[in-house]
Amino acid sequence: MDLSSESADGVRNRLALKIVLGLVGVGVALGLIFGFAGATAMRALGFKSDPSASAPAPTPTAVTETPSADEPDDPSPTTPPPTTEPPDKPKEPRFEASSDAVAPGERIEFKGRAPELGAGSTLQVQRREEPDGEWSDFPVTATTRKGGTFSTWIVTSRTGSWEFRVVGDGFTSPSARVEIG
User: Fold this and answer.
1) Rounded to 5, what percent of the chain is helix, strand, coil?
2) Which residue ranges have biased composition labelled Low complexity (predicted)?
3) Residue-level pLDDT at 53
Protein backbone atom coordinates (compact mmCIF):
# COMPACT_ATOMS: atom_id res chain seq x y z
CA MET A 1 0.00 0.00 0.00
CA ASP A 2 1.49 3.30 -1.10
CA LEU A 3 1.27 5.98 1.66
CA SER A 4 3.75 8.47 0.23
CA SER A 5 2.73 12.08 -0.03
CA GLU A 6 4.36 12.48 -3.44
CA SER A 7 2.04 10.25 -5.49
CA ALA A 8 -1.69 10.65 -6.07
CA ASP A 9 -2.33 7.06 -4.96
CA GLY A 10 -0.40 7.64 -1.73
CA VAL A 11 -2.37 10.80 -0.90
CA ARG A 12 -5.66 8.99 -1.59
CA ASN A 13 -4.62 5.97 0.51
CA ARG A 14 -3.55 8.18 3.42
CA LEU A 15 -6.91 10.02 3.29
CA ALA A 16 -8.83 6.72 3.24
CA LEU A 17 -6.76 5.42 6.18
CA LYS A 18 -7.46 8.59 8.18
CA ILE A 19 -11.20 8.29 7.51
CA VAL A 20 -11.31 4.60 8.50
CA LEU A 21 -9.31 5.18 11.70
CA GLY A 22 -11.51 8.17 12.55
CA LEU A 23 -14.68 6.09 12.13
CA VAL A 24 -13.24 3.29 14.27
CA GLY A 25 -12.34 5.82 16.99
CA VAL A 26 -15.82 7.36 16.92
CA GLY A 27 -17.37 3.86 17.09
CA VAL A 28 -15.31 2.90 20.13
CA ALA A 29 -16.12 6.19 21.88
CA LEU A 30 -19.86 5.82 21.21
CA GLY A 31 -19.80 2.20 22.37
CA LEU A 32 -18.19 3.17 25.66
CA ILE A 33 -20.59 6.07 26.21
CA PHE A 34 -23.70 4.00 25.49
CA GLY A 35 -22.38 1.07 27.53
CA PHE A 36 -21.82 3.19 30.62
CA ALA A 37 -25.13 5.00 30.14
CA GLY A 38 -26.98 1.70 29.80
CA ALA A 39 -25.35 0.22 32.88
CA THR A 40 -26.17 3.34 34.89
CA ALA A 41 -29.78 3.26 33.71
CA MET A 42 -30.13 -0.42 34.66
CA ARG A 43 -28.82 0.28 38.17
CA ALA A 44 -31.09 3.32 38.53
CA LEU A 45 -34.11 1.22 37.55
CA GLY A 46 -33.31 -1.32 40.24
CA PHE A 47 -31.75 -4.08 38.15
CA LYS A 48 -28.82 -5.32 40.18
CA SER A 49 -26.64 -8.34 39.63
CA ASP A 50 -27.37 -11.33 41.81
CA PRO A 51 -24.04 -13.01 42.57
CA SER A 52 -25.81 -16.14 43.79
CA ALA A 53 -27.35 -16.63 40.34
CA SER A 54 -23.99 -17.08 38.63
CA ALA A 55 -22.08 -18.85 41.38
CA PRO A 56 -22.81 -22.53 41.99
CA ALA A 57 -24.44 -23.26 45.32
CA PRO A 58 -22.19 -25.00 47.82
CA THR A 59 -23.08 -28.64 48.27
CA PRO A 60 -22.78 -30.28 51.67
CA THR A 61 -20.27 -33.10 51.92
CA ALA A 62 -20.79 -36.13 54.08
CA VAL A 63 -18.10 -37.01 56.62
CA THR A 64 -17.92 -40.61 57.74
CA GLU A 65 -15.99 -41.56 60.80
CA THR A 66 -14.66 -45.04 61.36
CA PRO A 67 -14.09 -46.05 64.96
CA SER A 68 -10.51 -46.87 65.81
CA ALA A 69 -9.56 -50.15 67.44
CA ASP A 70 -8.76 -48.61 70.84
CA GLU A 71 -12.14 -46.80 71.22
CA PRO A 72 -14.94 -48.61 73.05
CA ASP A 73 -18.12 -49.36 71.09
CA ASP A 74 -20.50 -47.80 73.61
CA PRO A 75 -20.22 -44.11 74.50
CA SER A 76 -18.93 -43.13 77.90
CA PRO A 77 -21.46 -41.93 80.47
CA THR A 78 -19.93 -38.43 80.43
CA THR A 79 -21.00 -37.82 76.82
CA PRO A 80 -23.85 -35.27 76.84
CA PRO A 81 -27.02 -36.27 74.97
CA PRO A 82 -27.53 -34.56 71.61
CA THR A 83 -29.64 -31.44 71.81
CA THR A 84 -32.56 -30.92 69.51
CA GLU A 85 -32.96 -27.38 68.24
CA PRO A 86 -36.45 -25.97 67.94
CA PRO A 87 -37.61 -25.73 64.33
CA ASP A 88 -37.20 -22.32 62.71
CA LYS A 89 -40.31 -20.29 63.19
CA PRO A 90 -41.85 -19.32 59.85
CA LYS A 91 -41.12 -15.83 58.57
CA GLU A 92 -43.97 -13.41 58.94
CA PRO A 93 -45.43 -11.47 56.00
CA ARG A 94 -44.11 -7.92 55.90
CA PHE A 95 -45.04 -4.68 54.11
CA GLU A 96 -43.48 -1.32 54.86
CA ALA A 97 -43.25 2.12 53.31
CA SER A 98 -39.99 4.07 53.02
CA SER A 99 -41.53 6.99 54.90
CA ASP A 100 -44.57 7.70 57.06
CA ALA A 101 -45.05 11.15 55.50
CA VAL A 102 -44.18 12.53 52.05
CA ALA A 103 -44.91 15.63 49.97
CA PRO A 104 -47.41 15.37 47.09
CA GLY A 105 -45.66 13.96 44.02
CA GLU A 106 -42.81 12.50 46.07
CA ARG A 107 -41.74 8.90 45.50
CA ILE A 108 -42.94 6.34 48.08
CA GLU A 109 -41.02 3.07 48.13
CA PHE A 110 -42.61 -0.12 49.41
CA LYS A 111 -40.83 -3.34 50.29
CA GLY A 112 -41.86 -6.50 52.00
CA ARG A 113 -41.95 -10.25 52.16
CA ALA A 114 -44.58 -12.80 51.18
CA PRO A 115 -42.94 -15.97 52.55
CA GLU A 116 -45.59 -18.33 51.20
CA LEU A 117 -45.02 -17.10 47.63
CA GLY A 118 -42.02 -18.05 45.56
CA ALA A 119 -40.23 -15.98 42.98
CA GLY A 120 -42.26 -14.63 40.07
CA SER A 121 -45.64 -13.95 41.71
CA THR A 122 -47.30 -10.68 40.73
CA LEU A 123 -48.66 -8.54 43.57
CA GLN A 124 -51.10 -5.66 43.03
CA VAL A 125 -50.64 -2.49 45.09
CA GLN A 126 -53.92 -1.34 46.65
CA ARG A 127 -54.99 1.86 48.44
CA ARG A 128 -57.80 2.18 50.97
CA GLU A 129 -59.97 5.16 50.05
CA GLU A 130 -61.37 5.84 53.54
CA PRO A 131 -60.34 4.67 57.01
CA ASP A 132 -62.83 1.79 56.89
CA GLY A 133 -63.50 1.93 53.16
CA GLU A 134 -62.88 -0.55 50.40
CA TRP A 135 -59.51 -1.26 48.86
CA SER A 136 -58.97 -0.14 45.26
CA ASP A 137 -56.19 -1.16 42.89
CA PHE A 138 -53.38 1.35 42.44
CA PRO A 139 -51.90 1.19 38.92
CA VAL A 140 -48.66 -0.44 40.13
CA THR A 141 -47.59 -4.06 40.61
CA ALA A 142 -44.61 -5.77 42.21
CA THR A 143 -43.02 -9.11 41.36
CA THR A 144 -41.71 -11.38 44.10
CA ARG A 145 -38.10 -12.51 44.11
CA LYS A 146 -36.40 -15.44 45.82
CA GLY A 147 -37.81 -15.95 49.30
CA GLY A 148 -40.98 -14.00 48.45
CA THR A 149 -39.33 -10.59 48.85
CA PHE A 150 -40.60 -7.70 46.75
CA SER A 151 -40.17 -3.97 46.30
CA THR A 152 -41.86 -1.29 44.23
CA TRP A 153 -42.61 2.41 44.35
CA ILE A 154 -45.42 4.83 43.59
CA VAL A 155 -45.93 8.55 43.10
CA THR A 156 -49.23 10.22 43.98
CA SER A 157 -50.30 13.83 44.44
CA ARG A 158 -53.53 12.96 46.20
CA THR A 159 -53.20 14.40 49.71
CA GLY A 160 -54.42 12.77 52.88
CA SER A 161 -53.64 9.81 55.09
CA TRP A 162 -53.68 6.68 52.93
CA GLU A 163 -53.31 3.02 53.74
CA PHE A 164 -51.48 0.79 51.22
CA ARG A 165 -51.01 -2.98 50.86
CA VAL A 166 -50.30 -5.62 48.20
CA VAL A 167 -52.43 -8.62 47.23
CA GLY A 168 -52.04 -11.48 44.79
CA ASP A 169 -51.98 -15.28 44.41
CA GLY A 170 -54.06 -15.69 47.58
CA PHE A 171 -51.72 -13.47 49.61
CA THR A 172 -52.69 -10.25 51.40
CA SER A 173 -49.94 -8.23 53.06
CA PRO A 174 -50.23 -6.16 56.20
CA SER A 175 -50.92 -2.49 55.44
CA ALA A 176 -48.75 0.61 55.77
CA ARG A 177 -50.10 4.13 56.35
CA VAL A 178 -48.55 7.12 54.58
CA GLU A 179 -49.45 10.79 55.14
CA ILE A 180 -49.27 12.69 51.83
CA GLY A 181 -49.21 16.47 51.96
Assistant:
1) 25, 30, 45
2) 50-67
3) 47
